[in-house]
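thought: user wants a sequence for this fold. calling inverse folding tool.
action: design(structure=
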């Protein structure tokens, strides 16, 4: 049985989520407050672990939300999301899964074609190519160009600003889930 298929109790998943939230919060501070972009791959790895369904990965946050039936929603007009995506009103509340399907950022691939990545695909691309365990790998040319593009939003490169909105959204949902679990005493 591979590590990703080993059954975990709810209390083990809650403890793991608490740890991942602490680490993601710390890495986000290092990147978005201190400006240390060495931790971008670590952020991407944590986001992949928490919210990206890909290959054998079963995302911890989404799985725990499904198992508990607790699904905190995001309000588009308030923190953590600053801009209202097309097709949504400012006061709409959407699920984390819906949020991850929203457009994130455009990327020009080596063939010259322009491709729009949704948030989950942007996280996946970063995690696969810049994740902590792959720090010695070269980035795909299109992703490297995107990360280096000097378009600034909120004082950050556009790709980092997009990453920050995803981090903020995931942390908001994860922290509210943990708070609700604490209030209900439902770790078992």
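)
observation: tool returned 188 residues.
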């Amino acid at each position: 049985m591979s590590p990703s298929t080993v059954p975990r109790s709810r209390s083990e998943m809650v403890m793991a989520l608490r740890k991942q939230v602490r680490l993601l919060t710390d890495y986000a501070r290092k990147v978005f407050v201190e400006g240390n972009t060495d931790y971008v791959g670590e952020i991407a790895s944590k986001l992949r672990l928490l919210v990206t369904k890909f290959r054998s990965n079963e995302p911890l946050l989404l799985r725990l939300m499904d198992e508990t039936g607790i699904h905190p929603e995001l309000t588009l007009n308030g923190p953590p999301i600053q801009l209202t995506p097309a097709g949504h009103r400012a006061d709409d509340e959407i699920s984390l899964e819906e949020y991850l399907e929203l457009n994130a950022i455009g990327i020009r691939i080596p063939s010259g074609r322009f491709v729009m990545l949704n948030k989950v695909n942007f996280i996946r691309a970063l995690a696969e190519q810049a994740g902590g365990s792959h720090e010695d790998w070269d980035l795909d040319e299109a992703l490297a160009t995107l990360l280096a593009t000097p378009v600034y939003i909120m004082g950050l490169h556009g790709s980092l600003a997009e990453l920050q909105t995803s981090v903020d959204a995931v942390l908001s949902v994860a922290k509210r889930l943990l708070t609700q679990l604490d209030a209900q005493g439902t770790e078992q």
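thought: summarizing for user.
answer: Here is the designed sequence. Confidence is low (pLDDT under 50) at residues 78-84, 151-156.
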